[in-house]
Amino acid sequence: MKKWFPFLAILLLFIAGFSLWPKEKKGVIVVDAGHGGTDPGTTSMTGVHEKEIALQFALKIADALRNANYEVYLTRTDDVTLSLNERVQLANSKPIDLFLSIHGNALENNDEVEGLQVLYYPDEAERNAELATIMMSHLSSALQAPDRGVLPRPELAVLRGTTSASLLLETGFLSHPEEAIKLENANYQQQFSQAVVQAVDHMIENLQQTQNE
Fold first, then answer.
1. Residue of 95, 98, 77 whose CA lies nearest to 169
2. DSSP readout, the chain?
3. pLDDT per residue over 38-90, tens digit each?
4. Where is the MurNAc-LAA domain (predicted)?
5. Distance (Å, rounded) from C-alpha 19 to C-alpha 25?
6. How many CB atoms lie within 10 A of CB 87?
């Protein structure tokens, strides 16, 4: 046994070192928490501003993506004012694979509508529409939330201006009493984040296949 000890020690050190070897990143993602600072966005039925909900979701999504071996940049990590142009400039300043803008939805004088929406810029290759459909499929399935549509929005500056694939996620309706409370729940935010990671995994594979064709 003694004569094997040096060999076993070297083998164990090799295995330990290999496990600590940095893995290649799956992709580079920018997560944008909508609104912020002097721009509160809409206000929830509970009195919480959209900017707060968006940031809570964005931080958890960023952490979940990093844990899944993505390189992630956030447009903001606290309550600061950012112009649409500043968000776009940050996204376009890096070689990223995907831009995700996080928001809360609302309808005036209607507190019955709830569910998810994914907005996209309608590019000629229809790449964003396909990615939006993948994202919605994962979110609605994992969260058991109503699918309120995958919608083209060519007028949205953060989607129109970014050179990478880009989506805007409407996490739910802050104008719906029950959904508003759910969107403030940390466990639900974490569940949402994990669904985003699963969708992004699928989307990155899709993008890589498209690039290789």
1. 98
2. -GGGHHHHHHHHHHHHHHHHSPPPPS-EEEEEE-SBTTB--SB-TTS-BHHHHHHHHHHHHHHHHHHTT-EEEES-SSS----HHHHHHHHHTS--SEEEEEEEE--TT------EEEEE---TT-HHHHHHHHHHHHHHHHHT--EEEEEE-TT-HHHHS-SSEEEEEEEEETTSHHHHHHHT-HHHHHHHHHHHHHHHHHHHHHHHHHHH-
3. 999 999 999 999 999 999 999 999 999 999 999 999 999 999 999 999 999 99
4. 88-201
5. 15
6. 23
| pTM of the predicted structure, to 2 decimals | 0.88
Please, what is the Cα angle at 117 between 170 and 161, to 5 degrees? 65
- The string of pLDDT tens digits covering residues 79-121 is 999 999 999 999 999 999 999 999 999 999 999 999 999 999 9
